[in-house]
Amino acid sequence: MDKKVQSIKWLYLTVFLLPVLAMAQEKETKKEKETKIDEVVLVGYTKVSKKDVTNSVASVKADAIKDMPSTNAAEAIQGRMAGVQVSLSEGSPGADVDIVIRGGNSITGSNAPLYIVDGVQMDNALSILSPKEIESIEVLKDASSTNIYGARGANGVVLITTKGGRKRAKTSINYNGFLGVRKIQNTIDVLDPYQYVLYQYEVYNKGGVQTDIDAFKARYGTYEELSKYKDVKKRDWQDEVFGREAFNFTHNLAITGGSDNSSFSLSLNNVQEDGIMIGSGFKRNMANFKYDYDLSKKVSMSLNARYSRQTIFGAGTSSTGSQGTNRLRNAVRYQPFEGGSNVNVDDFDPLFANETNLVNPVLLANNEIKENGRNDLLLNGTLEYKISKDFTFRSVIGYLQRDEFINQFSGTVTSVARQNNDQPVVFLSKAQTRRITNTNTLNYKKTFGNHKLDLLVGQEIVKTDGESTAMTIKWFPKSITAEEAFANIQSASPPAGLVQDAPRAGRNPDRLASFFGRANYIFKNKYILTASMRADGSSVFGPGNRWGYFPAASAAWKITEENFLKDSQTISELKLRLGYGLSGNNRIGSFLYDTFFITSSDYGYAFGTNVTPGATTGNILANKNVTWEKATSKNIGLDFGLFKGRVYGAIDLYQTDTKDLLLLAQIPKDRGYEYQYQNSGSTTNKGIEFSIGTAIINKDNFTWKMDANISSNKNTIKSLGNSASPSAFSYLYPSGWQNSLNDFLVQVGKPVGTFWGYVTAGRYEVSDFDYNPTTQVYTLKAGIPSSASAANGAKAIQPGDLKLADLNGDGIIDNKDMTDLGNAQPKFYGGFSQTFRYRNWDMSMMFNFSVGNKVYNANKIEYSTQYLYRDNNMLAEVADRWRWFDDAGQKVNDPTALAALNANTTGWTPPAGAYFLHSYAIEDGSFLRLNNVTIGYSLGKDFTKQLGLSNFRLYFTMNNVFTITGYSGYDPEANTRRNPLTPGVDYAAYPRSRFILSGVDITF
């Protein structure tokens, strides 16, 4: 408790008191009068002065991220907003970015927020935006603000406004470009060559089987010859696969200007980025054009056209599939030296691959070719008609088209090819999504003395269509290249009597019709009341269940407008906010209320000499009664400003209760199905958010600003439905990295993402056994529970084996001893930034942190378990394992000698059973990361003017500078399972890299 108190005091001093004390000693200047509270933010189809906002809204403006070079807009906002968790799933080029607002509300559905870009709905919008073109990002966090967007607003709404031109402004050209290089930050320590062969000697010789003993000598030599491996050059496969210097070239060009009645902007972005892994990389080209024109004093219009084309290269290291798709394993477990088999280590040895389940990682990386492409087109137009002084009509029409493709080639050394007659296999998929949106609003604004009224009514339609196809093509000639295979799929020739798998196709139409309204009333500029209502009709639900209704209300009291604070020299803003609202979620596939059939050769049947593809309904039972998931949010907040706005911030307390969860529920299999979407169960999220910013020093020649935020969220499952079955209270769920491993618990009263496994209790010592000197057999003493069935593949327990805790005390260690091992939720998280400017120099630092979250290090389980295969390398800590052989290579059986041999070892013998979760793999994922440091220098205005420039800035940046953490894996933020039920699993994640770059920002 004392350490926690000290930590809280330190945080309080650092974030609040020290900046305030520094400011108190500074004399007031004209710049001090500038405040942050006069900002305008976008809230639900209209802009509102931040002083009049009644909801919980987080905002990031262009000034905050303009000096932070990044290819990913999500990275630029990481750690900047209270209650908004932004994390990269892994370090691969174009890796998915997770954005979760106030914890996850859904269990099996998506927790991603709704994105609105320039008034048009998009999915994962930050991936197609350059940070340089963003004008502002507003995040609506509570239902009193998100409900105006109704459908999909339950997980928060991210409103993004891109930059445009300015009227009556001369044409300006800005170029911002940088060159950088990425390097792997850390690696997983493994056994060196000598440690490796000593371990293999033990594995081969422990059982005393002569054929195994002879096999070891043939592969590695006699025990007396093993000392030569001390001088064998180690091959660091992780360095060979991930160790290259990966260059990045990024160019941003923006042209803006305007006349008396129009403005325009054109922005172009080009990114060419290598990945640190062989064969991986990322390319992107984007163009965005915006044009605003006043047709008359009453009518104005704007047009926006955006196109993005990006491709991710490389198969990466991980997949949401099982252990068989783990490519990282080969770089960690492949033998750490030349030789060791009858084939050169740089050639493919099929016998060695079958014996070890490993392939040379360099050969594998060059044999798996993958191109994952995505093209996005966004067109939208806005017409605004000022009917009168008080009435404004606005119409927005948008068209969004996304084309995606995957071309993947699996060469002869891959497991996919080896399972298909050692012939290459190609996977091709294409998908297109088209969305048309139309939003029409009528806005009425009027001031009557002390009364200010703002009314909005609107109507919106969203029409989404799409098709997808996928095919797996086998039996290509062994000599074919990836390029030849992609271009000539007809060259694949099935053997007689066999056919190619039938292509898979799907359609996913979605229709949404909405009506909404909002009223905002302000009295005496002190008291604000906002009420809104939205009705959504969604086609994903069956007839009779399509409409959802989402009301909300919020209020604010500007306390500083009261007489007792109006003339305060210390408190410049104090506003109390209250909010309550209901929002909805319809994120399930289309037609789940009806039964459809799918075809595949997996369900085929023999007809003559051929296999005819069959049809099946799949494993999800239709449900005609499924309807909207609803989230009710309550929020109380306090905005404050001190010292004429030089200290500003907010504190919010909230509770979000989600009911009628769109749950993919497990059902009895007697009807031929495993799952069914149901409105079943509820969750709650409770939390507190605190943000603060200060202009610590604001002199003409020197400024020092700081922004910080910290948040805490507690998620709890309240119900899993009203079914009388046991699963109504709890059920187990697999993360999927190992087949049939139920390593997550879904239970009422616990948070989503609870790890489920055994408690590690060290190892069995000699004292735990009775020893028979005649038979030389160790037998567990009576009363000592055996971990044999759980950890050792039912083999008899021996000294040095892994011991698990017998939690229920029944003398048997089985699944009844599995327990809650923690969860991935942090106790609190946040970020803080420091910005300095001294004359022409500028410097910024951006930190983010997380405290109290657990990480499930599945790599640690796999790389310290023997299981089925020999000749696999292990984690370096396995060198400290229990020893059975002395320094002369002789097996020790005598209890006294065996205990003495292991007096200085602490590890256990790698388990011989299947992979399973125990607390050894659950690690503290707390971290403090310096995400970004940027140092810039701008040429003086007099000098730039002589050059015909308005700005010239050089900068140097380092991203992912350092991470302070106790986590033993690549990165404590890794999350490779991509499922709300299984967060915090680090399995085969692509390593995170450090990015060092320099660039120039020039404005003509």
Automatic annotation (TrEMBL):
Residues 1-24 form the signal peptide. The keyword Aminoacyl-tRNA synthetase does not apply. Keywords: Cell outer membrane, Membrane, Signal, Transmembrane, Transmembrane beta strand, Transport. The keyword Transport applies. InterPro entries: Beta-barrel_TonB_sf, EF_Hand_1_Ca_BS, Plug_dom, Plug_dom_sf, TonB-dep_OMP_SusC/RagA, TonB-dep_OMP_SusC/RagA_CS, TonB-dep_rcpt-like. Gene3D superfamilies: TonB-dependent receptor, beta-barrel domain, TonB-dependent receptor, plug domain. This is TonB-linked outer membrane protein, SusC/RagA family. It is found in: Cell outer membrane. GO terms for cellular component: cell outer membrane. SUPFAM superfamilies: Porins. Residues 50-157 form the TonB-dependent receptor plug domain. Belongs to the TonB-dependent receptor family. It is a multi-pass membrane protein. Transmembrane segments: none annotated.
